Design the sequence.
């Protein structure tokens, strides 16, 4: 790309460096222009612009090798779709639809169904197959199909370490985290360690519940309980969830037109704006609607955004597209963006009814729209979501998604599509309880993956990726693979992709910070949410990437962020 090629120009870097090293000139710049020079110097240097010609050529070779390894890793996964055979009895618990049009083979006079390791086959089986022997067999097939990827990953880890050394860093993790909020591997590790310490007790209690379910199943068929293993995790978590609460009966409170209208009203209140639908706009499809965004006084224009919510060929998941960044030239260039989704079109007599997860996602993605629209930077480079640190970019979105679990907010959003009645309080309580089910074990798994990611990339010593994965998994996640030899890491692309290596922690970091903001500020008793929303808009959203998000977060909170609210929201109250 043009940007990638530009960042390799050492002649441009020399010019940038001349400004960067001139203290008098740097001091004369505005804060945003000074940050521009600092960011450009960092970007060019991290791409190798400060290296000698021989060092730069070596860096280029290492980058090419990493690209080849990343492609090879994914190709191995895509080309190793294994198949295994089960009788109908061995697949007890699977719905009838699972067997429709499924390939059948005649083996020794008996019929067996062909089950592949593709996601659709695998996860449905692991969630519903009642026989442990079936789940165990499928788990082992799935996690032993790409064993040569262990060597690919080990090689990538070694090359990334060489690359980091060449660029002047001790480890790849140190290199990868430098431009983000965490800044150092130690800061990320400290956060993960605190989460692990406080989630282990909660996870252990949840594991006892799952173990009891399995013990009951074993007793019912006269078998000895021999332990709880990775192939049991999904099945018993799903079983426990179905015993407790189903969200399907909430859909009647989430009709799409009403949800959108109520969300718009909420965003207007939160951020002090007015949304105006345009009549007969020029759009790319009849389903598309276009809106103007104004300040609440309706005198100051903010920008335009489009909504394109309904399914048609070529569309898939919900997403937000930044069509034009806002910036100041001689005049203000206003931002334009679009939210695109793939909801089914309404029937003549019934509106589109959403699942709660879809409502949560819609609220978050609309938040991304407003994050882009409300940014007020001088430079387009610092505008909106794309300019934020990778471990902060999801924080504002996560706050808004979590609104959809608050009784106070749901009372504003959720209305029965026929009667207009608010969602009953007892249903909201059940919904909140369902969110906490299995949270300890689920987040311990995330903590493990993030700690593992740092472990392989923050060590100067040679590591064996698979051996370390298996030992850390049992130690942190609390659930083992029962002594079987597995290669789970060989099919997880997180650790080899250049955009994710050393940065698995980022999602947890964002969630911790979003929970701190949500519960300490927005949902605090006696707080005026519109007042908090305007402060969040001014301090965080308007700044975009023109300021370090660490500074903006601390300024908004009035203190350093911590993990307390996140842990309490999960029921880990031992802190």
Sequence:
């Amino acid at each position: 790309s043009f940007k990638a090629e530009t960042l390799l120009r050492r002649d441009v870097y020399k010019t940038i460096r001349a400004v960067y090293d001139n203290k008098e000139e740097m001091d004369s710049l505005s804060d945003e222009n000074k940050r521009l020079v600092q960011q450009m110097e960092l970007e060019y240097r991290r791409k190798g612009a400060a290296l000698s010609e021989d060092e730069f050529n070596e860096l280029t070779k290492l980058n090419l090798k990493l690209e080849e390894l990343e492609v090879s890793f994914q190709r191995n996964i895509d080309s190793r779709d294994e198949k295994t055979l089960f009788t109908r009895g061995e697949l007890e618990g699977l719905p009838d639809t699972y067997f429709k049009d499924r390939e059948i083979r005649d083996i020794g006079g008996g019929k067996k169904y062909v089950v592949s390791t593709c996601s659709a086959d695998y996860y449905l089986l692991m969630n519903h197959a009642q026989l442990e022997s079936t789940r165990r067999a499928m788990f082992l097939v799935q996690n032993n199909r790409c064993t040569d990827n262990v060597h690919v990953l080990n090689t990538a880890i070694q090359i990334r370490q060489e690359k980091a050394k060449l660029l002047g860093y001790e480890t790849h993790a140190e290199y990868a985290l430098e431009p983000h909020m965490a800044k150092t591997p130690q800061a990320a590790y400290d956060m993960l360690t605190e989460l692990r310490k406080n989630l282990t007790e909660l996870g252990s209690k949840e594991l006892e519940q799952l173990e009891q379910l399995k013990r009951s199943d074993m007793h019912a068929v006269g078998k000895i309980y021999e332990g709880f293993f990775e192939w049991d995790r999904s099945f018993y978590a799903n079983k426990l969830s179905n015993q407790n609460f189903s969200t399907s009966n909430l859909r009647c409170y989430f009709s799409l037109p009403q949800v959108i209208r109520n969300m718009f009203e909420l965003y207007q209140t939160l951020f002090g704006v007015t949304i105006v639908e345009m009549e007969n706009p020029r759009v790319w499809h009849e389903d598309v609607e276009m809106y103007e965004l104004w300040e609440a006084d309706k005198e100051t224009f903010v920008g335009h955004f489009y909504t394109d919510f309904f399914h048609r060929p070529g569309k898939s998941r919900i997403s937000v597209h930044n069509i034009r960044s806002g910036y100041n030239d001689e005049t203000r260039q206003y931002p334009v963006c679009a939210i695109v989704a793939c909801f089914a079109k309404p029937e003549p007599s019934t509106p589109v009814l959403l699942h709660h997860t879809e409502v949560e996602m819609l609220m978050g993605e609309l938040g991304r729209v407003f994050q882009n629209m409300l940014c007020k930077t001088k430079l387009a480079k610092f505008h909106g979501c794309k300019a934020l640190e990778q471990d902060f970019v999801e924080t504002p979105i996560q706050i808004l998604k979590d609104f959809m679990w608050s009784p106070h907010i749901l009372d504003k959003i959720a209305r029965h599509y026929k009667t207009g009645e608010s969602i009953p309080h007892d249903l909201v309580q059940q919904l909140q309880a369902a969110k906490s089910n299995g949270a300890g074990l689920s987040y311990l798994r995330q903590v493990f993956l993030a700690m593992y990611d740092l472990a392989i990339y923050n060590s100067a010593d040679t590591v064996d990726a698979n051996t370390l994965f298996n030992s850390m998994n049992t130690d942190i996640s609390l659930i083992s693979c029962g002594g079987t030899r597995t290669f789970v890491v060989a099919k997880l692309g997180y650790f080899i992709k250049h955009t994710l290596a050393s940065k698995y922690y980022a999602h947890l970091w964002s969630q911790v910070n979003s929970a701190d903001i949500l519960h300490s500020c927005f949902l605090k008793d006696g707080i005026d949410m519109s007042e908090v929303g305007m402060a969040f808009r001014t301090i965080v959203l308007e700044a975009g990437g023109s300021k370090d998000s660490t500074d903006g977060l601390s300024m908004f909170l009035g203190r350093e962020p911590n993990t307390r609210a996140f842990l309490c929201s999960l029921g880990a109250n031992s802190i």
The longest helix spans residues 185-220.
